[in-house]
Amino acid sequence: MDVLVFFINKVLVAGTVLGSIYALGAIGATLIFGILRFAHFAHGDMMTMGAFFAFLIALVFYHYGIYLPVPMGFVVMPLAMLLTIAVALGIDKTVYAPLRRRGARPVTLLIASIGVTLMLQGLIRLFFGTGQYSFFDYGETKSIFRIDMSWAGARPITFTQPQVLMVIVTVVLVLILNFFLTGTRLGKAMRAMADNADLAQVSGINTQLVVRLTWVIAAALACAAGTMLSLDVSLKPDLAFNIILPIFAAAIVGGLGQVYGAIAGGFLLGFAETLGVFNWSTILRPLAGVLPDWIVIPPDLSLVPTEYKLTVSFVILVITLLWRPTGIFKGAST
Amino acid sequence: MPLIEVKNVVGGYGGAPILNGVNIAIEQSDIGVIVGPNGAGKSTTLKAIFGLLKVTSGSITFEGHDIANALPDRLVPLGLSFVPQEKNVFTSMSVEENLEMGAFTRRDDISGTRDEIYAMFPVLKEKRRQPAGELSGGQRQMVAMGRALMSKPKLLLLDEPSAGLSPRYVLEIFEHIVTVNKAGVAILMVEQNARQALAFASRGFVLAQGANRFTGTGPELIADPEVARSFLGG
What we know:
Helices cover about 65% and strands about 0% of the residues of chain A. Chain A is mainly α. The radius of gyration of chain A is 21 Å and the shape is globular.
């Protein structure tokens, strides 16, 4: 039973958390690809920026001694989302829109977004330095929940309050997005433009409006993902830049342009990475007494060392591309 | 005054002009058909009307409004609608959602128009929840026409509506076009099945090298021996 609890703690909880972050990031990346037809490399840094906005606003509350039963990071998230949206729209207006008007090719926009990455990272370091921050260094405590398993003679299942809230927020955001895309006129227009931009234009759909809406949604989700990631681990300037590659892998595995694909891809890679670094020898340890002497269970049986966690995503990406080049949900092939 | 008047239009995609002086005039009751050899600028003329390529000289007026180089999001509310030849449905969206997208510029209740389209194409009502990408070529063409009609246009532009369809569907689509026209929508279409289309055209335009060669009623053009010899395959 101990083994099962260990598995739940190490794989189920950690995989769900990582999967939620990847999914929220991948939805934004896949939407931008679907509508604007380029890989938005600065997406990770938009997440980091959103997290820093949330941190700044939270600091104001801490300063006035305001503490709530839930982590401040979650409470201020809507405000941080608004700021992130404003910056994303500003960047689109000043960087990407002029390029689009000149008929720039996707690769040009991609390079421009690498420029935006450097710019955002520079700005963040300019104001916050290169160190790490935590929301929980200012008098707020991270509550830990334990589900008692003593009736089964096992250690408790543990997870933190931010982890629970993270899953709830992710589910709520996905449900809202789903309602928007399938139930509203503008949401359908967005899907129409991702499906066939020329026909959307011919139908009289205001494509400029759809582009702005795409940034609004992508930036809001990026801010949520970044803030929640920083609440789970810690806040640093390269917080989400480090996970931009698995996020794109998730979007591609799910099928570029496919929102539900991005969610599936995000959770698939989140769990795969967690399972990849999971030390299987702990699960086999109870067998030690049963096995003959000449079989020794090595102390570390994880598939890849923790530092190489990212390789798991790429192995899955390569397999997907070989087996189904357009992704699980049949997205764009470019 | 004609519903739409295209006068001496010159235009292209930025390089050498493709259209070198096209003239088209259509009344509200007309079915206009543009025919001509490949590369004559037939589809390009429709695209020029719909703001999809640059008009460098000449004029396009619709009910007195100057619409040269106006973009679709202005043209659709004015009463123009366009069915492209290829990729003319949203493949990942349901039939019903395709129709809704056609009505994007309308803010009033669209259910009446939708029911009229379902009455015209009963098969679409049956398949209204299916993604348009799963439909046959003929059914897709119906979705494409239905989508364009959802904005309640005064003028419907159709780019080769019969392309790639089996002869049975060609006839059916042509019958639908005549029905739509009888309901009060002017039609301007490009067709490869020139003889068949001109037979029911009240205005026919033979284009060659980006300019008008012959203009007349459909039956007049079919009867013209020179048109028949050069453009209708004898």
